[in-house]
Amino acid sequence: MTNFKDLGLSKPINDALIDLGYQTPTPIQEITIPQILSSDKDLIAFAQTGTGKTAAFSLPIIEQIDDKSDATQAIILSPTRELAIQIAKSIKDFTKNYKKIETLAVYGGANIDEQIRSLKKGVQIVVGTPGRTVDLIKRKRLKLGNIRWLVLDEADEMLNMGFKDELDKILETIPEQKTTLLFSATFPKEVEAIAKNYMRETVELSAGKRNIGAENVSHEYYLVNERNRYPALKRIADINPDIYGIVFCRTRRETKDVADKLITDGYNADALHGDLSQAQRDIVMQKFRSKHLQILVATDVAARGLDVNDLTHIINYKLPDQIESYTHRSGRTGRAGKKGISIAIITNKEKGTLTQIERKINKKFEAKKVPGGKEICTRQLFSLIDKVHDIEINEKEIKDFLPDIYQKLEGLDREELIKRFVSLEFNQFLSYYENAPDLNGDRSRSRSRSDNGSFTRFYINLGKIDKINPSHLIGLINEKLRERNVEIGKIEVLNNFSFFEIDKNYTDKTLDSFRNFKHKGRKIFVEIAEKPKSRGRDRGNRRKRGKRRRF
Ligand code: AMP
Fold this sequence. Notes:
Bound molecules: adenosine monophosphate
Number of helices: 21
């Protein structure tokens, strides 16, 4: 088996790698390290997050850095601040036995003067986001005269994020006699254009599309109705009490929405998306890294650069548009020798995408059933019992309280005590899942939800002529009811009036809420309307769950 020494890296680097626990090179490292060490030709490498690409480009650069010179010799561009910081940190780890090699991450949102001061002291390797790098070049603070390597890391992502102008600027300005190393997971035409316009005599390398952890990831899917997507997510979380995972959504809005619902429903979750300030994103990521958060709901872009090795689950709340993104997402679990599960919650419409993904990753998804209430309660209960069993008892701290506690519980035998403690922890959970409906399958072509009798149909004298559409109506209902998560069924907006359905438990509240309501000076009436003829089947009880404690 090849080791790092065989690839041509010297002892100080090897020693650092041993300390980091890197025993053998990954496939991409095996091919890029000798190439970059032996040639100054430009390089295009296909590699995804999780393949070990950071070391693949930085180790051979470090090996060749002239540490007698203070000049900046390598610039590494990365799409996000988090990734830049992470790359710089890895390089610092790799160079720990080279006291004279300095590395600096430069990125927006941080004090530029401080970065300039650090650059002045002499930094051989600069890792930057495109915007801040251009800024420093323009101010002539980042000197380009001695640049020998320019690395474009996650080139496709930088272009996706709209950094084309910045990349053009940097590539035009940096002297020609440098080696450009382009790393990209995909090769869309925008990346091709960069390669064509700015790179010459390129060598193309690919070490297969496998992530380090891909072998350990199993892929599963749950087929549900669109409206059961969120309830299915909750059940997946509930059946995995120790879940530590990322739920991927497609838009910022969806991310926020799903995270808000999870938080309201008592889960230890938070959102990571582009609408948050950098400081807010830092806080969320820190909470997640330190495992103070169990579930992170994120967009693909926002989750970039979040390097966490022991995720148990990746959940695709919706499958991504680009199939490559699925590989990125799922490659975030099953790392460092651990097993990981990548889950897709899909509707009938997304079956085609799933098949395309299966072809691409050359693996089959296993069809899973959304667990039922009994199964979830059993799992949660036993998880709780295991925790009680394994908890470390702090004799010193509790000893003073014990005599009084024993006295209070006197007369309760062991069985009785166990029953009471389980009930205390569990009654709310059991009642939430009592009569829980089966969420499996997508019968999306089935009829209006009022068919099952769990909705009341209302008439309202507002319609298209009042410039009302279904989303206005939903907004209005939410505003008037002042209650989150009330199920709204079918909405029909007609010319002069509209119909809407509300969970029948809220019938009186709806009527009350709209009493004496005026819209643009006109009195608005909301009345119970006759239901259309019932043809559907009973879908069972939909109970809304109260806030409960997570274990
Ligand atoms: P990257 O693709 O560079 O983001 O690396 C993914 C993860 O794999 C990081 O946590 C690295 O520390 C780790 N890694 C990279 N190369 C190796 C290696 N040769 N052996 C073990 N772990 C590695």
